[in-house]
Amino acid sequence: MAAPEISTAAVPTLYTNNALRNAFGGVLAFFILLLIGVMAFSIRLFSVIKYESVIHEFDPYFNYRVTQFLAKNGIYEFWNWFDDRTWYPLGRVIGGTVYPGLTLTAGTIWWFLNSLNIPLSVETVCVFTAPIFSAFASWATYLLTKEVKGTGAGLTAAALLAMVPSYISRSVAGSYDNEAVAIFALIFTFYLYIKTLNTGSLFYATLNSIAYFYMVCSWGGYTFIINLIPMHVLLCIVTGRFSSRLYIAYAPLVVLGTLLAALVPVVGFNAVMTSEHFASFLVFIILHVVAFVYYIKGTLTPKMFKVAVTLVVSVGLAVCCAVIAVLIALVASSPTKGWSGRSLSLLDPTYASKYIPIIASVSEHQPPTWPSYFMDINVLAFLVPAGIIACFSPLSDASSFVVLYIAASVYFSGVMVRLMLVFAPAACITSGIALSQAFDVFTQSIKFQLPGISSNKEVDAAETSSATAEAQNDAVKTEKSEETSKNRPSKKSKKKEKEEKPSTKAKAEKKRLLALPLDSSVISLLLLILLGAFYVVHCVWAAAEAYSAPSIVLTSRSHDGLHVFDDFREAYAWLRHNTDVDDKVASWWDYGYQTTAMANRTVIVDNNTWNNTHIATVGTAMSSPEKAAWEIFHSLDVKYVLVVFGGLVGYPSDDINKFLWMVRIGGGVFPHIKEPDYLRDGQYRIDSQATPTMLNCLMYKLCYYRFVETDGKGFDRVRQTEIGKKYFKLTHFEEVFTTHHWMVRIYKLKPPKNRIRGKTKKSKSKTSSTSSRAKISGTGKKNPWH
């Protein structure tokens, strides 16, 4: 009878200790998350500190321009905006061709701050949107990982994501692109799916559909969600893990999520008509068939159940075959089988290079190299396998989703380097699980190996907890039957004591046997801390040096100090101040967004790349001789041509290095442009061994015109060779502006009358009497096409 008395006295103390411990742990976790959010925001400010508050890259300038329009004119004008400054003479309907999530988010933030009399400019809000949402993404990662493996793993994963270089590369201050908010939406949608799966709550299922809708508004990568979740549902069904919670987690997402997705103008009926979405509908049908089978199993007798299953399976197979036949018919009617070009390039990595060179020409659509994995996720590459193993002990619905997520994202990141961004959260989640469990193992081992105090406390705590549970049960039984307990007080209590005490001691002994040696645990713990420190140093370096420089302002260091190359803004400023508002500017599509946003001039093509024929026309002009190129540009009402040249300063991303893609894209539409004509023995050359077609094309002439005057030799620092054709004149174009470092060169098309001056002289000698009479009368006119 002594044991129950001691345990009953210890109950309030134990409850108080647990409550205090939980409260302290919750407060500590909150402050750690707050610090993680501050760290995620501040580590992305190197670009502002080192350079200035400026928009980066190419696509963000279009998003910035659209946000400016939204803030100035309102949302209704935004939905109906027809932009006549892009894709001349076609134009573009902006409201129906953009993912509006980023623009509406930044516009809402700007409106809210200004309503509080905080007068921030639209540009400032756009610059800092990505760092703000990186903090949100870290918190969403904590919530997701906590649902899978607990608070410790969640905090570790959040800290890893806040610093991972792959995510920093697309979320530094100034990187105002769709991924700035889409990665948060992706992780938060996955969290709500797992939360619904764990709780079976219809409330979280509804929130999950709304989060999916925000993801659809933000980025075309939403198809990753609508394919990964059905794969997980199918995996749960195949492995016998079907439950009502699984049904609640998936069915509302497909129905409500698809209806909401169809409200986004750029998606519309694609939400039900394209092959990317068919897997979700097929799994939706399978889920209902399985749910119906489980339902009738609980209501029918075994014999009737067999008959019903046979009937259901027969009807189900017939319906599935009919649905599959309809889908096959729809898919077969499309030349791309219902898939978009980017999706096909993911399923078949060689597809884009064979059939769609415009997709293959984009650098971020290329497969990554092995060093890029170590650059973008660093030590996480070694921790991911350990995290996958940890997800199997024990395997749950949530942990199986993480395993499936990491497997799918690894494949897609290996196909397209841009999708390293999708792989990064999965790598952080699995690495956070691995690190958390490793710390638990090593710290528990050290605790068991410490001299007597801790081990005795463990045994005493175990005995006290078991005695507490026993005391509560005995107290209830004593209140119900006081007389019975007096008659038989010792037998049951003694049996329970004999059974429980050996079991608690056995558990403590088992933990002690599983503990690692003290020196191994300490060394392993120090190595993990060292690994974490190395990861932090690498991430800070990547944020400060590798990913902080805006592409529009370049820097380089040499023996005489730091050099800043601001040629892009110099060129756009010249266009803005020295050309007419209605002038059209032709360039390769990479610079279309910047030209429209910064120079406020009409462009022929831009980074939207929706019309391959129009881009091929510009590529054909750049690949053609000067006269043919002039005729093409003149037919498009072009007045200025802009080219980017890095041969003087060693800038490798110039138009000469991109020129073969212009040839391939142009040749894909206009067969007279053939790539072998620009290659010498299969090699791309610009020196004296270059082909005549290469030396006489417009791109070569516009880049290397007067280049020999810079050093007397015409040495190209990017190609590391002297150019082949050094001295030549332009007959149909005239140079009007070249930036300080020769990185951007602008040419003006000569008017038609200037290019036929020699022919008019010959015509004068043949018709001297007619021309003299015309001069006297003043009514004669020259024929410019003679």
UniProtKB/TrEMBL annotation:
<keyword id="KW-0479">Metal-binding</keyword>
<feature type="transmembrane region" description="Helical">
    <location>
        <begin position="373"/>
        <end position="392"/>
    </location>
</feature>
<comment type="pathway">
    <text>Protein modification; protein glycosylation.</text>
</comment>
<dbReference type="GO" id="GO:0005789">
    <property type="term" value="C:endoplasmic reticulum membrane"/>
</dbReference>
<keyword id="KW-0460">Magnesium</keyword>
<keyword id="KW-0256">Endoplasmic reticulum</keyword>
<dbReference type="Pfam" id="PF02516">
    <property type="entry name" value="STT3"/>
</dbReference>
<feature type="transmembrane region" description="Helical">
    <location>
        <begin position="180"/>
        <end position="205"/>
    </location>
</feature>
<feature type="transmembrane region" description="Helical">
    <location>
        <begin position="23"/>
        <end position="43"/>
    </location>
</feature>
<feature type="transmembrane region" description="Helical">
    <location>
        <begin position="399"/>
        <end position="417"/>
    </location>
</feature>
<keyword id="KW-0328">Glycosyltransferase</keyword>
<keyword id="KW-0464">Manganese</keyword>
<keyword id="KW-0812">Transmembrane</keyword>
<feature type="transmembrane region" description="Helical">
    <location>
        <begin position="211"/>
        <end position="235"/>
    </location>
</feature>
<feature type="transmembrane region" description="Helical">
    <location>
        <begin position="93"/>
        <end position="113"/>
    </location>
</feature>
<feature type="transmembrane region" description="Helical">
    <location>
        <begin position="247"/>
        <end position="272"/>
    </location>
</feature>
<feature type="domain" description="Oligosaccharyl transferase STT3 N-terminal">
    <location>
        <begin position="27"/>
        <end position="429"/>
    </location>
</feature>
<keyword id="KW-0808">Transferase</keyword>
<feature type="domain" description="STT3/PglB/AglB core">
    <location>
        <begin position="582"/>
        <end position="641"/>
    </location>
</feature>
<dbReference type="InterPro" id="IPR003674">
    <property type="entry name" value="Oligo_trans_STT3"/>
</dbReference>
<feature type="region of interest" description="Disordered">
    <location>
        <begin position="461"/>
        <end position="506"/>
    </location>
</feature>
<dbReference type="Pfam" id="PF21436">
    <property type="entry name" value="STT3-PglB_core"/>
</dbReference>
<feature type="compositionally biased region" description="Basic residues">
    <location>
        <begin position="755"/>
        <end position="765"/>
    </location>
</feature>
<dbReference type="InterPro" id="IPR048307">
    <property type="entry name" value="STT3_N"/>
</dbReference>
<feature type="transmembrane region" description="Helical">
    <location>
        <begin position="308"/>
        <end position="332"/>
    </location>
</feature>
<keyword id="KW-0472">Membrane</keyword>
<feature type="transmembrane region" description="Helical">
    <location>
        <begin position="150"/>
        <end position="168"/>
    </location>
</feature>
<keyword id="KW-0325">Glycoprotein</keyword>
<feature type="compositionally biased region" description="Basic and acidic residues">
    <location>
        <begin position="496"/>
        <end position="506"/>
    </location>
</feature>
<feature type="transmembrane region" description="Helical">
    <location>
        <begin position="125"/>
        <end position="144"/>
    </location>
</feature>
<comment type="subunit">
    <text>Component of the oligosaccharyltransferase (OST) complex.</text>
</comment>
<dbReference type="InterPro" id="IPR048999">
    <property type="entry name" value="STT3-PglB_core"/>
</dbReference>
<feature type="compositionally biased region" description="Basic and acidic residues">
    <location>
        <begin position="476"/>
        <end position="486"/>
    </location>
</feature>
<dbReference type="GO" id="GO:0046872">
    <property type="term" value="F:metal ion binding"/>
</dbReference>
<feature type="region of interest" description="Disordered">
    <location>
        <begin position="755"/>
        <end position="786"/>
    </location>
</feature>
<feature type="compositionally biased region" description="Low complexity">
    <location>
        <begin position="462"/>
        <end position="471"/>
    </location>
</feature>
<protein>
    <recommendedName>
        <fullName>dolichyl-diphosphooligosaccharide--protein glycotransferase</fullName>
        <ecNumber>2.4.99.18</ecNumber>
    </recommendedName>
</protein>
<feature type="transmembrane region" description="Helical">
    <location>
        <begin position="278"/>
        <end position="296"/>
    </location>
</feature>
<feature type="transmembrane region" description="Helical">
    <location>
        <begin position="513"/>
        <end position="537"/>
    </location>
</feature>
<comment type="similarity">
    <text>Belongs to the STT3 family.</text>
</comment>
<keyword id="KW-1133">Transmembrane helix</keyword>
<dbReference type="GO" id="GO:0004579">
    <property type="term" value="F:dolichyl-diphosphooligosaccharide-protein glycotransferase activity"/>
</dbReference>
